[in-house]
Write a structure and sequence with these properties.
It is built from 6 helices and 3 strands; from the N terminus they run H-H-H-E-H-H-E-E-H. Helix 3 crosses helix 6. Helix content is 57%, strand content 11%.
């Protein structure tokens, strides 16, 4: 996010601390498990909807559609319709999407590295309210 001084020179729409900022809206859009997984798989190759749905285990048709539309709206995914019968639609990451994939890869690596630690912590955790 940057230091307070770095943040103070940002335009209001780029400040994550502001509830009304575009940056916070974008962050909210892409910081979900489905968007992360879609970005990860599309970073490997261009895919059709059904291929992507098969790769992203557990995602519904509706949820995949919603996330692809959101990623396309934010300029992270490109949708190409080929004029065949039936139409063939392919999805690929944009330059911005590929840049975000670097961050997603880091998150995936972090998850794999600390999975055992987190599992141990969860098994020892006792809810103070319970």
């Amino acid at each position: 996010m940057g230091t307070r001084q770095e943040i103070s020179v940002l335009p209001p729409e780029a400040d994550l601390a502001r509830a009304d900022s575009l940056a916070r809206e974008i962050f909210s859009d892409v910081a979900n498990k489905w968007a992360f997984l879609i970005i990860e798989f599309l970073g490997q190759r261009t895919m059709r909807f059904s291929e992507l749905r098969n790769e992203v285990g557990g995602i519904s048709h509706k949820m995949l559609t919603q996330n692809l539309r959101m990623l396309e709206r934010n300029g992270l995914v490109e949708r190409e319709v080929h004029p065949t019968i039936p139409p063939r639609v392919e999805y690929t990451l944009t330059e911005a999407g590929n840049a975000l994939r670097t961050v997603v890869d880091g998150m995936c690596g972090w998850t794999q590295r600390y999975l055992g630690h987190i599992e141990t912590s969860r098994s020892r955790f006792r809810d103070p309210a319970g």
